[in-house]
Amino acid sequence: VDGASSNTFTVVVASNTSGNGFMIDNAAADTTLSYSTFTSNANGWAAFYVQYSSRTSVSRSYFRSPRGNAAEFFVTDGNTVVHSTMSSTQSGDYALYMEGSSNTVAYSYISNPGGYGAQFNSGYKFLITDSTMTSGSSGFQPALQLTVTSSVTIARCYIANTNGLGLSLDTADNTAVYESTAIGAGGWYAAYYNGGSSNTITRSNLYAPGATALQVDDETYSSVYDSTLSADFNLAALYLFRGAYNRFQRLMISNVS
Fold this sequence. Notes:
Layout: E1 5-10, E2 13-16, E3 22-24, E4 29-34, E5 37-40, E6 48-51, E7 54-59, E8 62-65, E9 71-77, E10 80-82, E11 85-88, E12 94-101, E13 103-106, E14 109-112, E15 116-129, E16 132-135, E17 144-155, E18 158-161, E19 167-170, E20 173-178, E21 181-183, E22 191-194, E23 200-202, E24 205-208, E25 214-217, E26 223-225, E27 228-231, E28 238-241, E29 247-249, E30 252-255
Parallel strand pairs: 1-4, 2-5, 3-6, 4-7, 5-8, 6-9, 7-10, 8-11, 9-12, 10-13, 11-14, 12-15, 13-15, 14-16, 15-17, 16-18, 17-19, 17-20, 18-21, 19-22, 20-23, 21-24, 22-25, 23-26, 24-27, 25-28, 26-29, 27-30
């Protein structure tokens, strides 16, 4: 879809063994897709790729790229992905990558056992609700990562990494996490907040067997309320490093070893 507007695709199967499965580019706008399957089996290519376009809406669809990003939205605004599944297995790549503003992901399953689950980068007003994001990658390839973002809401989500970091906020501001679960493993945190401000966690559960549940570095004016933080192996469930003016209220903090 090259610069076109107001187009609808229903029950489409798009597959490519040497490039992107489906691509939207060049200021295309108001593209709607539903009940469709997008795949790519090419190294470094995406099953579904949107760039420099706006208001793409996807529902009840499946994206798979075992050797690249499953769904990638690059410098795009006003996009919506609902009731969909995104899957990759490639280390260093993403099941879902979004860069832009005013984007929504809801009621979706996002998985990459070899790399990043979902990444939201360089934007504001992201809404992520009622979704599952998982990774099985050891080290710093989180199930969900926010980088240089602001005004993000994460609600009723399950965020888990079976070998590494669960949730990561890096230089993210005004992020609200509520009624969600984050799990880390392999010596990594359930949630890691670094260098941001005015972030909140409310009515959520953070668990990290073998590590600190919540690591907070250089944060200001961030808060955790009405939540459970659990760790084991004699490690702190909550570790606060530098920063200032943070608030922690009505927490259950435990070490289960």
